[in-house]
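Figure S4 source data
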Amino acid sequence: MEAPELERRLAAIVAADVEGYSRLMHRDEETTMSILSVRRATIDALILEHRGRIANTAGDSVLAEFASVVDAVSCAVAIQHAMETADAADPDLPMRFRIGINVGDVMVKDGDIFGDGVNVAARLESLAEGGGICVSRGVHDHLRHRQNFVFEDLGEQLVKNIAHPVRAYRLRLGEAQAEDLTPVEAPPLLDDPALSLHDELTLELTLWNSVKEGGPDELASYLEHYPDGTFASLARTRSIAANESSASVDQAAADLDAAFWDAIKETQTDEELQAYLEQHPDGHFASLARARVAEAAAPVHHGAEQSASDQAVELAFWESMRETDNPALIDAYLDKFPNGEFAVLARARLEQLRSPADGNTSEKEAS
């Protein structure tokens, strides 16, 4: 049965967890679980009050999505003020939450949310201090003209499992935003025909700022929402460049692999073969290198056993390059095994690669 298609949508993602949760559990498991249950009840109620949806909970962490950036940030501020009040009422048993907020494209399956937008929110959470809130550039840009939110720029941050740097901002609590914590009706991030042109442009700019430094998949999410948008041409150009860069890296790695092997292919020393395997454990010649290492380590025999060893080396060499389109690799095989088991096949393959036009003509004449 074909799997159901994943739903995609643009959302503001809030990720929260408890600072030092493992330490608290180690000190007193029962008390920590009791406090966490009470705090979670407060957090869940505030998420619903601010029109959010709880997507996932695991241990001390909470993941929620909002259709509005304003609702998401206002909810986070309300949560931190509620936690501060609870800590003040019981200062001997504090429990401080860290919150990260991002806006981006998410995938939805069975009520849970996935994708790079969720991962960035989780990494921003890890950058936040206990009792603090850290947001992405997309969230900051959406709110930078609102005087009731004050941000501190933390600059570009390199975070785990995210290929590109993430621009982070700390929301400075206790300052201007304390004046108004009431949820504000803001333009939703989801498609709405009633949105004004200004709102549409704001949403497009928010999405672009969140993906413009990303890879092909992130740029594709922008193009999916805005195929004829302001930045569509730039998104396509960057996507093509990213793919070409990836292909160039793969070709460079293949060239280094071939050059390394060419330098040591006649060696009789185990050290050089091991050096090749350390640098290129999955290289074109890795199987052959391992066979040679094993052959060198085995006791020397004569007759049929020695012949079997030679055949194993040849087979390993052939398996390492039989699917290649690089004539140099086939030449390397023929240099080593001019009368080998696969020599006829290797020469035919080499002739096909070097004279494709002639080969096609011959095939047509034969038919």
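Figure S5 source data
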Amino acid sequence: MRKAFLQLHFAILLAGFTGILGRLITLNEGLLVWYRLFFTTIFLWIIFAFSKEQKTGTVKTLWPVYAVGGVVALHWVFFYGSIKYANVSIGLICFSSVSFFTALLDPLILKRKMDPREVLLGILVMAGIYLIFHFDPKYKTGIVLGIISSLLAALFTICNKILLRSHSPKQITRHQLTGGWIVLTVLMPFYLFLFPAPSLIPGGSDIGWLIFLSLFCTVLAYNLSMSALKSISPFTVNLSYNLEPLYGILLAFLIYREDKELEAGFYYGMTVILFTVLLQSWRVWKKKA
């Protein structure tokens, strides 16, 4: 059990590094995500080639998985855009608004009764983001991009609930990220027309960080989470992932000293959001008890 918890929290720490690397890599957000998906897809298919997993599914049955992969790719583009236009801390805090959009979209898509408590908690998160927006207006572009990123994250998470009824997690991950790369490849000419980049080829250090992002923060983090699930309940895993923004923000404070860039409004908003996350965690934990 101890080993499983170490695996889980190492996976969360790796996930927290994605924001740090988003600021470190000099490519714009579109190219960053394209290369991340490119390397990740290669690694996943290599792992699949050497695994004992049977090939299942056809283009007809897997096309929804590929389509949701496009949503994942766009989510990452907006997430890294939020970091580029603001900073890591803002991007990660805005990601917390995924709970608000999930509370609204989940009942609509999955045809279940809306939980007013979930909506209220989501509104509290949005209030926290508004505090940051109100006191630190220079981050408004990054905040808007971060909120769109969260909306897309809520959408693909709900869609994945449906896909898991007929596909395995490994199959979804492999085909979904492949689909994300294909969708982004199709969109890339239009994206680069609107947002020209000085160079399409990453430099040596960028390539190294992109491989680290793909291999460790994506592939390894996913496999560690799957290994932890053998000994830990899915509930505990999902609850623990609430620490990802906190880990990422602490890393941003340590590495980039973003604590010196941020004003009081950020901390007011972060306090409201962290309180909401703790309240939601306690509510779900009480329900499970």
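The longest helix spans residues 59-85. The radius of gyration is 19 Å.
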